[in-house]
Design a protein that fits this description.
Chain A is an all-alpha fold. Chain A contains 23 helices and two strands. The longest helix of chain B is centred in the last third of the chain and has 49 residues, at about 610-655. The chains are: A mainly alpha (about 575), B mainly alpha (about 675). Chains A and B meet through helix 8, helix 14, helix 16, helix 19 and helix 20 of A and strand 1, helix 5, helix 6 and helix 26 of B.
């Protein structure tokens, strides 16, 4: 099992989906039970990964690698290679957990076409896991596109009144981004062939050659990938598909959409954009452009969120704001910013996932999401009100809960680079308190004015079960985030060392150095000997001491040029 | 030796957890026992810790305990740890002691309320965060407490969440505080960036190597000013004080604990804790002093005309906090903390006594409907009397010593204007407090029978506010019915005893700091000043700061002369109040009429709330709704997206007509195509 753990995690949902095909569609309860069992199983099989990965957390590069380059379609150099590092590990755990929770939450919400719903949901689950696991650009793209379809169907079939508009908008937006990204992937593929004479989509090989692309081509490529990812995140101004998709999607769809799907954008930026085009990412105007888009996203998302009258739309816009923090941390391009960003992605999955569940609970009872329809709900649903308060506090970044740790780390990392960047992001924290507390007041406080709300039932056991793990994790990350940072420190430091070779206190980057099974002998590529760097505690570096004039690390342009970046990857 | 200081904050947290999760099913007595037990225990432990602390030798101070790493990212890390020095000992004792007394009082005050267990759970959560704030050994953990007390305050202000005004006030408090946190956060980032740590014990030596930033403002000035922004939020100073008067929507014991005695002093604590920064940043320190002084007189002027007993006390709190800032600003941190302590005693007492009055009148808060109450509420009257004399700064009550120390520090450090404003404020304080005293306890009882309550003044009466609202709601507080407007009555013992203890403290609390000029020994100053001693924080560092500029050997007669000025003004305030509100009670109304616009302006609190609303909030709402959401999002981006979809459809629609099914047209297209290919080949020169 140890050697195939990733495949097991990846295929468990698919097995579930296949088995569901055999159940007659009239037997709804059997379908529900089977889907829930497999969703839970999907989470359960990912649990052994926790101790196993923990033991390897200090090893750079991809772990638990399965498959080999070019073993799938050798003629074009595509392979079934999957492997994870700390970043993908956390996102995979988030995916399996949220997958199980959202399937559990759909029990009553979905009454039509139950069988198809669960099948598509499980397929979606596998697609997302594949995206986080793929070590081959071809495989990655297959998963990336494959999970579009089930999401499209989830919105389009089980969505609200404007579901078709929302679904098509979602599909076209993301497809548009994907097409440009595909062109980018093909460019890298042929470029690799030009340099080495080998056709391959194998990610570590592309890591070695992609940074050698120089000049305008690199910038165009960067933006081709960026567009694909930015639409997914979504960054301002590519975000308008998100509110529609969220409002129309069924609750579980929203949970997965916000919790996991958006993270594929930020994951893509971290996994591909930065290591492929380090020099472009460090080009001052590109970087500033990214930062400015993130800052606009933070403030703009929060302000628009403030004025929403539909709860779900409010939460959707708050996602734009929160994801702004994530991209801000990414383009801070230092260990604190990046690890804060990844942690914040997890946090956002937890908190916003919970917020969508929360909205869904009221929607299931009242079939409206208009804030003005509610008021005084804490009188009739006290447990629900308490859970909501905790998750709101988590989302607005109250210390001792998860959101604070992520936001603080991101802001601190950003501040190291540029004070103004961080200063512009902080109002987002203030506004988060404003829109969430105002929402809370309007929905939960006051007397029950609307008689339709008088008989609302508090959380059932099943509903409570969907929240408990999220609350526990919110407190865990808030109180003791150290293990998460430990898991992230190796891949993040590695990445920073790749993008900014002169960043002090980091080990030499190791991007592809893993024992890759059955590497073809003629395959050129970076050093593949397992190089276990020292536990990369970077405490000895960057200790600023008393320095009165210690400058922020300058936005590097001179050193991070192409040759340096290429040299850094071990060539 | 570890004192296991972590137990102190965690005890109330445990109480909150038990009451919060299970309290609903508990009988009241059990809820009481848990809430009181888990606050008495930390108080007892704080006393024990203080005794242990007294036994430490100077080189063991500060006593630091480290438990675990909390978060570490990049090169920065912060830990869970506790920091015990003279300052945190005093804060810890004040918080646990006053906190415990107010818990006891609450048992009586909240007796008739729904959501009893919820109230005590919140109150205990507050204690947890406040103790974390004062005991933390790094700024980040202090920030945890800082935000946490804000949360507790939000929950407790909004405790009567059925009332829109209460829910609004809670939200306003939280968000205003968040605005202040903006400054605090950026200050923390600056500290991290330049010193790489937020741990006090690592920071102090690094900071003390900085020279005093005279002339050019530098890093420490920036840090100091940003911290001040944070402090103005939490401690209700100009310009962020607006939340505190509204916070009076909360239950009165909450006002006493959070909005008078403890939480609002967090900003003062933070400034005092960061004295090394402020000592080196004259501009920041000057800003602290000026903001404090301005706030003191500004709030006092509003307090003079308010008619709601709690609002008067709220503005008086803001004003007194201004004094504490003034003290810190003139680098008399000891004076600031001394006043913090005595203020905690007498202001908690004032609120509790006012609460007793409100309780006794079945929820009446308007002083115009009180009067003559000393006959009905004798214990309340006497304790209120002591508190009033204390806050007015009359000897030998506690407030005299602390306030006088601050004023003297201001004068002797050369801030003569600040002294003048401060001493005028002292006179105003005395006036509005005795006004409250006379209006409430003297003259004839102008009390209402229930019919006459509706007199146009928007009754803030908390108990009676919303009887019409949902009666059957579980958390509705059913107080109004249970002891409505019958004749005024004294409060039960469980409320009166805390009043008496606090009255005693308000009397003798100042005696710990009798100045040398009055032949005292200033034990308070002797105990606390090492905490602000540069040398003790950083062994070997030159104490090249004006911190110790206080001229100890100044001749006592000058100091005494200045004392008599402020006492004289306080006495004048008393006499004016006596004349206007006891002797000639018809005069104030005439004067108010004569003052006209000025009076209205004061009554409307200078219309600052309206100003913020018009300048900040409304534009923001309009911008978000009309420009961002409806303009950019829906108008611009979505129209572009939908437009391109429409364009695509129209384009395909146009092309659809090419597939007409007509063979001849197909042949035509083939011919056109072939011609195009040939033309292209010719053009490219293909043979």
């Amino acid at each position: 099992m140890y050697n195939h753990i990733l495949s097991i995690i990846l295929f468990t949902p698919l097995v579930g989906a296949a088995l569901l095909l055999l159940v007659p569609k009239e037997n709804k309860d059997a379908i529900r039970w089977l889907a829930n069992i497999f969703a839970f199983l999907g989470f359960a099989v990912s649990l052994p990964l926790v101790p196993w990965f923990w033991a390897l957390k200090e090893r750079a590069g991809f772990q638990f690698v399965e498959g080999a380059p070019n073993n799938w379609i050798p003629s074009i150099g595509a392979g079934y290679v999957i492997g994870i590092d700390g970043i993908s590990f956390l996102l995979i755990m988030l995916t399996t957990l949220l997958g199980a929770i959202s399937i559990l939450s759909s029990w009553n919400a979905i009454q039509d076409r139950v069988k198809e719903y669960y099948i598509w949901f499980l397929v979606l689950q596998a697609g997302m896991l594949g995206v986080f696991m793929a070590n081959d650009m071809f495989l990655f793209f297959v998963f990336w596109e494959a999970m579009l379809v089930p999401m499209y169907l989830l919105i389009g079939i089980w969505g609200g009144p404007r579901k078709l508009y929302a679904a098509i908008k979602f599909f076209l937006y993301t497809l548009f981004g994907s097409v440009l990204m595909l062109l980018g992937i093909l460019f890298l593929y042929f470029h690799h062939h030009t340099l080495t004479g080998v056709y391959t989509f194998y990610l570590p090989d592309l890591y070695a050659t992609a940074p050698k692309i120089g000049g305008h081509a690199a910038i165009w490529l960067f933006f081709a990938f960026f567009l694909g990812f930015a639409i997914k995140v979504p960054m301002f101004p590519f975000h308008t598909w998100l509110p529609d998709a969220h409002v129309e999607a069924p609750t579980a769809g929203s949970v997965i959409l916000a919790g996991v799907l958006l993270k594929m954008g930020t994951y893509g930026l971290i996994r591909f954009s930065l290591p492929f085009f380090p020099a472009v990412a460090m080009t001052p105007w590109v970087r500033e452009f990214m930062i400015v888009l993130s800052l606009i996203g933070i403030i703009y998302g929060a302000l628009v969120s403030l004025m929403q009258k539909d709860m779900k739309k409010l939460v959707a816009y708050s996602s734009v704001s929160h994801l702004g923090f994530c991209t801000l941390g990414i383009f801070a391009l230092n260990p604190a910013g990046l690890s804060g960003s990844v942690l914040q992605q997890i946090n956002h999955g937890i908190s916003t996932g919970a917020l969508f569940l929360i909205v869904g609970i009221l929607y299931e009872r009242r079939h409206t999401r208009e804030i003005s329809e509610y008021g005084g709900i804490s009188n009739v649903m006290p447990v629900y009100a308490t859970i909501t308060l905790i998750m709101f506090m988590s989302s607005m970044g109250l210390p001792l809960l998860n959101g604070f740790v992520g936001e603080f780390t991101i802001l601190q990392g950003t501040f190291m680079e540029n004070k103004a960047w961080a200063a512009w992001a902080v109002p987002g924290v203030i506004l988060a308190a404003a829109y969430l507390l105002w929402l809370y007041q309007r929905v939960f406080f006051g007397p029950v004015n609307n008689h339709k709300n008088e008989g609302l039932l508090d959380l059932s056991g099943r509903e409570l079960a969907t929240f408990i793990p999220l609350v526990i994790i919110a407190f865990w990350i808030g109180l003791y985030p150290k293990p998460f940072f430990q898991i992230l420190s190796t891949p993040v430091n590695n990445l920073v060392a790749t993008v900014r070779p002169d960043y002090p206190g980091l080990n030499k980057p190791v991007l592809a150095a893993q024992p890759v099974p059955t590497t073809p002998a003629d395959m050129p590529g970076p050093a593949k000997t397992p190089e276990t760097p020292k536990p990369s505690t970077n405490t000895d570096g960057q200790k600023p001491g008393v320095a009165t004039t210690q400058k922020p690390l300058p936005v590097n342009t001179a050193k991070a040029d192409l040759t340096a970046a290429a040299a850094a990857t071990g060539k | 030796m570890s004192m296991h200081l972590w137990i102190i904050p965690l005890l109330p947290l445990a109480g909150a957890a038990v009451n919060g999760l299970l309290g609903k099913r508990f009988p009241r007595a059990l809820v009481n026992a848990i809430a009181l037990g888990f606050t008495a225990a930390p108080f007892a432990m704080a006393l024990w810790v203080a005794a242990q602390f007294a036994g430490l030798s100077p080189d063991q101070i500060p006593h630091i305990e480290r438990y675990a790493t909390w978060l570490s990212a990049g090169a920065f890390s912060a830990e869970y740890g506790m920091y015990l020095d003279q300052l945190s000992v005093i804060m810890m004792l004040v918080v646990t002691g006053v906190g415990f007394l107010i818990h006891v009082y609450s048992v009586g005050y909240m007796e008739h309320e729904g959501g009893y267990y919820r109230y005590f759970a919140y109150l205990n959560i507050f204690m947890f965060f406040m103790l974390t704030l004062v005991l933390a050994n790094n700024y980040l953990l202090m920030f945890v407490g800082w935000e946490g007390v804000g949360l507790a305050s939000y929950l407790l202000i909004g405790f009567w969440f059925l009332k829109k005004s209460a829910a609004d006030a809670g939200k306003k408090a939280f968000i205003t505080n968040r605005v202040g946190d903006f400054g605090f956060l950026i200050a923390l980032f600056l500290l991290i960036k330049h010193f790489g740590t937020l741990q006090y014990d690592s920071l102090w030596p690094l900071i003390s190597r900085y020279p005093v930033e005279t002339g050019a403002a530098g890093l420490l000035t920036a840090i100091g000013l940003l911290m001040l922004v944070g402090a103005t939020g939490k401690s209700a100073q100009i310009p962020l004080y607006v939340w505190l008067p509204d916070a009076m929507e909360g239950p009165t014991p909450v006002s006493a604990l959070i909005h008078a005695a403890t939480m609002v002093t967090a900003g003062v604590y933070m400034v005092a804790r960061s004295h090394l920064v402020f000592n080196r940043a004259p501009d920041a320190q000057m800003a602290v002093a000026v903001i404090g002084t301005l706030t003191a007189i500004f709030a006092a002027s509003i307090g003079i005309v308010q008619t709601d007993i709690k609002k008067v006390l709220a503005y008086s709190t803001i004003s007194q906090l201004g004094y504490m800032f003034m003290a810190c600003g003139v680098l008399d941190y000891v004076g600031g903390i001394f006043h913090l302590m005595t203020h905690a005693f007498f202001k908690a007492l004032l609120f509790l006594a006012a609460g007793s009055v409100i309780h006794g009148l079945g929820g009446e808060q308007d002083m115009r409907h009180m009067g003559g109450l000393r006959k009905y509420l004798p214990y309340t009257f006497w304790s209120m009397t002591i508190a009033t004399f204390a806050i007015a700064g009359l000897p030998p009550f506690a407030g005299f010593f602390s306030k006088d120390r601050i004023l003297w520090s201001a004068w002797s450090s050369g801030y003569h204007v600040l002294w003048l404003v401060g001493v005028i404020t002292a006179g105003m304080t005395s006036f509005y407090m005795f006004r409250l005293w006379f209006l409430t306890f003297f003259g004839k009882y102008r009390g209402p029978n229930p019919e006459t309550v509706a007199h146009g003044h928007d009754a803030d009466a908390q108990h009676a506010g919303h009887t019409g609202a949902v009666q059957d709601a579980k958390d509705a507080h059913a107080a109004a019915g249970s002891h409505g407007h019958r004749s005024p009555h004294e409060s039960p013992w469980v409320m009166v005893v805390p009043l008496m203890i606090l009255a005693l403290l308000s009397l003798v609390g100042g005696w710990a700091g009798v100045p040398h000029s009055l032949h005292g020994s200033d034990r308070f100053g002797t105990f606390l000043s090492p905490a602000f001693n540069e040398a003790s924080a950083t062994p070997g560092a030159a104490a090249a700061t004006p911190a110790e500029a206080k001229p100890e050997s100044e001749d006592n007669s000058t100091e005494l002369a200045f004392s008599s000025i402020s006492v004289g003004l306080a006495a004048l305030g008393f006499l004016a109040a006596w004349w206007l509100y006891y002797k000639r009670p018809e005069l104030p109304e005439r004067m108010a009429k004569a003052a006209g616009g000025l009076y209205t302006l004061l009554l409307d609190k200078y219309k600052i709330d309206e100003l913020y609303g018009a300048v900040i909030i409304q534009p923001l709402i309009l911008l978000s709704t009309n420009v961002f959401w409806k303009g950019i999002d829906q108008g611009l981006i979505d129209r572009a997206v939908d437009g391109s979809a429409t364009d695509a459809r129209e384009a395909s629609d146009a092309m659809r007509h090419m597939q007409s099914g007509n063979i001849r047209s197909y042949a035509g297209w083939v011919a056109v195509g072939a011609a195009a290919v040939i033309a292209f080949m010719v053009w490219r020169g293909v043979r």
